[in-house]
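note to self — DONT lose this again. spent like an hour looking for the file last time. sequence + predicted structure for the chain T wanted, 297 res
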Amino acid sequence: MKVMIAGGSGFLGQALTKSLLADGHQVYVLTRGARAMDGVQAVQWDAKTTKGWGHLVNEMDAIIHLSGKSLSSWPWTAAVKQAFHDSRILPGLALAQSIQEATHRPGIFIQASGINHYGLSGDLADESTPPGDDFLAQLTIKWEDATRSIEELGVRRIVIRNAPVLAKDGGLLSLMALPIRLFVGGPLGSGKHSMPWIHINDWVGGVRHLIASENARGAYNLVAPTPTSNAEFNRILAKVLHRPYWFPTPAFLLRTFLGEMSVLILEGRFSQPKRLIESGYQFQFPGPREALTDLLG
């Protein structure tokens, strides 16, 4: 199988690429200059147009859109928020255009999105839950809509609403663990809000499962099946690292320091991977204790 990945030089793209290469697939990574992994065909693009690479779509069996500026970029100025938008929507529009113009279209298109699609509060959410009205939720709507036209072309389109991915190298886990390693770990704010997460092996496994499942289409939550609060997650993280769990960080301090970005760690809605489980996927790391022990124990 030939697979093209936009955003393939990033943390998630590299993990997925390694898995695909290990099974003998050919991977093409759309990049704006980053060095590609060994065994990968690097394809230059501007993440805005089909110039110089669009013809390659005719050869692809699958295309995966993982492009997007990290939400951990601080502070969230107007310019940074515009970059969040442009780095997601413009590549999506270019990919949709390339498929529209192709004479031989890929069989599957995977569109990344975020688990924050469902807003900052409410009952346990699944894929049928309406989106929220906050900035992050509205960003996911535009992100997903940028490639919605692909469905009209007969291409099987899947939207993966990703939770923060935990891994030994890359991602946010090392930053999340830092306060606890420094003996000042504890809940953030009240600690009652959701801490969505998924182990890197289950993220890759979930994506590979959806690619292989011929009837899979539409939205799927890529989040661990055990709803976890911020306080519970940090308590388990402290135990795995053999550190105390006693130093709560007041919400007002985080809001003062981080501004609007504080919603990433002070608010969040619990959600579940209902459709992924119904499709037959079995999680390797369903709970935080197993996942954190594997990665840090």
